[in-house]
Amino acid sequence: MNIHTIKLNEQFCDDVMEGLKTFEIRLNDRNYQVGDIIHFKPVTNDGNEYYHKIVNRVYQITYIISGWGLQNGYVAFSIKEIQCDPLEDYV
């Protein structure tokens, strides 16, 4: 299991937290695997970090797919929030 801290555009933060956006499409430059942990770092449209309460949440990859219309080298993976105590165990 790997822990990945990845940027998440501000327009998606609320949707991820509310469970509306349950997937990510990413370049597979980190060798994402089912079971890996995702910690999001919120960024604005111009790439600057900012605070959003999603930084206090942790997600786990539950499914991965490549090919099937995705650009070569990219994957789509589904995520679900997991509860952890303390958060520092994952990030």
Describe the protein.
By secondary structure, the protein is mostly beta strands. It has one domain (3-89): Hypothetical protein (Archaeosine Trna-guanine Transglycosylase, Chain: A, domain 4, Roll). Helices cover 9% and strands 41% of the residues. The chain is built from one helix and five strands; from the N terminus they run E-H-E-E-E-E. It has one helix spanning 10-17; strands at 3-9, 23-27, 37-43, 58-66, 74-82. Strands 1-3-4-5-2 form a five-stranded mixed beta sheet. Strand 4 (58-66) and strand 5 (74-82) form a beta hairpin. The longest helix is centred in the N-terminal third of the chain and has 8 residues, at 10-17. It is globular and about 35 Å long. The two termini are 13 Å apart. The mean pLDDT is 92.
Quick recap:
This protein has one helix at 10-17; strands at 3-9, 23-27, 37-43, 58-66, 74-82. With 91 residues, the protein is mainly β.
Task: Tag the structure with descriptive keywords.
mainly beta, 91 residues, 5-stranded mixed β-sheet, 41% strand, Archaeosine Trna-guanine Transglycosylase, Chain: A, domain 4
Count of domain modules:
1
Strand order of the largest sheet: 1-3-4-5-2
**Fraction of helical residues:** under 10%
Number of strands: 5
**Spans of 5+ residues with little confidence (pLDDT < 50)?**
none
CATH superfamily assignment?
Answer: Hypothetical protein
Percentage of β-strand residues: 35-45%
The protein's oligomeric status is: single chain
Q: Let me know the average pLDDT.
A: 92
Tell me, what is the CATH class?
Answer: Mainly Beta
Shape: globular
Alpha-carbon Rg, integer:
13 Å
SSE arrangement, N to C: EHEEEE
How many angstroms separate the termini? Answer: 13 Å
Q: What is the annotated CATH architecture?
A: Roll
Examine the coordinates and then state which fold CATH places here, giving the name of the CATH topology: Archaeosine Trna-guanine Transglycosylase, Chain: A, domain 4
